[in-house]
Write a structure and sequence with these properties.
There is one protein chain. The protein has 258 residues and is α/β, with parallel strands linked by helices. It has 2 domains: 9-116, Cobalt-precorrin-4 Transmethylase, domain 1 (3-Layer(aba) Sandwich), CATH 3.40.1010.10; 119-253, Tetrapyrrole methylase, C-terminal domain (Methyltransferase, Cobalt-precorrin-4 Transmethylase, Domain 2, 2-Layer Sandwich). Helices cover 31% and strands 24% of the residues. A 5-stranded parallel beta sheet has the order 3-2-4-1-5, sandwiched between helices. The radius of gyration is 20 Å and the shape is globular. Mean pLDDT is 94; it is low at 1-5. It binds S-adenosyl-L-homocysteine. S-adenosyl-L-homocysteine binds at residues 17-18, 84-87, 90-92, 117-118, 122, 166-168, 197, 199-202, 224-227.
Amino acid sequence: MPSSDNRGKLFIVGIGPGSTEQCTGRAKDAIRESEIIIGNDFYLRLIEDLTAGKEVITSSMGKEVERARACVDLAKEKRVCMVSGGDPGIYGMASIVLEVLEHDGASIDYEVVPGVTAATAAASLVGSPLSGDYVTLSLSDLLTPWEMIEHRMDCAFAMGVPVAVYNPKSRGRPDNLAQALAAALRYRDGDTPVAVVKNAFRESQEVRFFTLQSLVADDSYVDMRSIVIIGGEGSRIGTVGDREMMITPRGYDRKYIY
Ligand code: SAH
């Protein structure tokens, strides 16, 4: 039931990958309906045009638990919006906010608002590389032990499906991606297509194609704001006019002539 105006509410909102054009209508409404907007600096700057005149609380990367605690406390009386890049439930803020809410024990009205995640945003810019089953991996070992990530890499590449790699580089571990690519090479040919999308749907957006072998030779192009899509067994590079694309056919060719 809708809560009365003087009751608090907590929105956990995914703002999509960048420009507010990729932010859903519900996400924009949740931001407009909120009195207080909390998030990290980088994402708040992307949605500045939606937050004018509101109380905006910025917090730096790495302070997620404090941010979650703060928004739960504020939401007891106010309409609060916690913004997360992409989708809040994919390597985002939704889980920690919900865990804090659960521990808090208070009955707070909340809503998780989905957003366009980096994998599908990047896929759309590249062609259709994730058309069937695929796996996402994050190489960030801030919350997941590296041994577990290594094990998951092996499982993912063994599946033969495309793998979308989030957090491919970090300041602390610049060689994470090299290790993932080495794992991929144990299961894939060196000429497997790989797409790197940097800053999807942001001003400095860039898209570049590699082969697995060429990225193994030099992955310096990839940074923290990139997502890396490593092709699966059926993935290939195609062209439309003079535009290259990466495509993983779903298998229509097994059934139809076109
Ligand atoms: N919740 C976010 C992911 C946060 S993890 C989502 O659903 O998209 C942060 C990682 O996501 C970055 O290191 C990068 O790998 C990827 N990422 C997020 N936004 C991106 C964008 N606009 N372009 C390319 N990669 C992006």
